[in-house]
Write a structure and sequence with these properties.
356 residues, alpha+beta, BirA Bifunctional Protein, domain 2, 12 helices, 21% strand, binds 3,4-dihydroxyphenylalanine
Length: 356
């Protein structure tokens, strides 16, 4: 028994890794292991012999088992020490600076507008930027030869000769989303539709791509009074101050009657300030949705009526944040973006950004 003990304790002491330890365990205590075989011999012993041999064998088994466990943890400690010698980290080093992006004013304003209208029960609708001319014009009561089609400086998609499908255009306004939303959801309805629009135009206040936000509300008995209230609520929340509006009679094919909407402002030293003074600034087009437009979208004009409006998001951003040149919006100049951009965690609220 002593020889056996010495043999295995020496083997354990000399093992250099876990698999060697496992081999030793099997050799000693596996089914055919030396100690296991000795245990089996107990059956053939006299009760007296068994009384001494049994406990001794059990003790031997325990000794080998705990020697293996101790060696195993010693090996693991040694391995960890070895890793720590090689792998180390200087936690006193300064962090690596990461470039921080900013939220573009157009995105910021889109979110702000969305939050304000959401509070008045308007959902957000979207439509494609490449639009069929039916959605962009016909359904909005703009017939084929109507001057608006050229006034809007429309970009037409290329068609191969012989391809006589009706034309597709880059949408010239967000108004086609009115049609899509009505056709999909019917009435009653309250949606806004922000997005990119395109017109062949380029100067300080015009870029070939810009952003609009469309509004549409349908119900049994909506009127221009509801329109005016909604807009005044919107502008006051957006500019963070009471803003009066003025409706001027106008013409759009898709509304009857139609109105252009001005907001109250002052001009001082070449600076425009919204919500004070006696001047007026035109900011949007609006009106009661034309019965033909309702019909085109499958809404019964004898049952439902409503108002619609459309305005430029970029214009709103310029006004609210004092940005003088629209073209800079889309130049991707990092200095401009850092100056006018918003921190990524500046989540818009109803009055977001007003008192920055
Ligand atoms: N679609 C018009 C434009 O781009 C703006 C507009 C005017 C939208 C009147 C409307 C509206 O919904 O009722 O100039």
């Amino acid at each position: 028994m002593d020889d056996l003990r010495q043999k295995y304790l020496d083997a354990v002491a000399g093992a250099t890794d876990e698999s060697a330890l496992e081999d030793i365990r099997v050799q000693a205590m596996g089914k055919q292991g030396e100690v296991a075989l000795k245990m089996r011999e107990l059956g053939k012993m006299t009760p007296d012999e068994r009384q001494t041999a049994g406990p001794a064998l059990n003790k031997l088994k325990d000794e080998i088992t705990s020697a293996i466990a101790a060696k195993k943890s010693a090996l693991a400690d040694a391995a960890l020490d070895e890793r720590l010698r090689h792998e180390w980290l200087d936690v006193t080093l300064p962090g690596r600076p990461r470039p921080q992006g900013t939220i573009h004013p157009v995105s910021q304003v889109t979110d702000e507008v969305g939050a304000i209208f959401a509070d008045m029960g308007f959902a957000v609708a979207e439509g494609p930027q490449i639009e069929s001319d039916w959605f962009n014009f016909d359904a909005l009561n703009i017939p084929p030869e109507h001057p608006t089609r050229t006034e809007m400086d429309t970009f037409y998609m290329h068609r191969d000769p012989g391809d006589d499908r009706p034309p597709h255009v880059l949408r010239t306004h967000t108004s086609p989303v009115q049609i899509r939303a009505m056709a999909k959801h019917g009435a009653p309805l309250r949606v806004i539709a922000p997005g990119r629009v395109y017109r062949a135009d380029y100067d300080q206040t015009h870029t070939p791509m810009f952003h609009q936000i469309e509004g549409l509300a349908l119900d049994r008995d909506l009127s221009m009074a509801n329109l005016k209230w909604v807009l005044e609520e919107f502008f006051s929340a957006f500019f963070g101050t009471g803003v009066r509006t003025r409706l001027r009679a106008s013409h759009f094919p898709f509304t009857e009657p139609s109105a252009e909407v001005d907001i109250q402002c002052s001009w001082e030293g070449g600076m425009v300030k919204v919500g004070e003074g006696d001047d007026w600034l035109e900011v949007l087009g609006s009106g009661m949705v034309h019965p033909k437009v309702l019909s085109a979208a499958g809404v019964d004009p004898d049952q439902w009526q409503g108002f619609a409006f459309g305005m430029g998001i970029d214009r709103l951003a310029m006004l609210k944040y004092g940005i003088p040149d629209l073209r800079a919006f889309f130049d991707s100049d990092l200095r401009w973006l850092r100056h006018y951009g918003f921190p990524a965690l500046d989540v818009p609220t109803l009055h977001g950004g007003v008192n920055r």
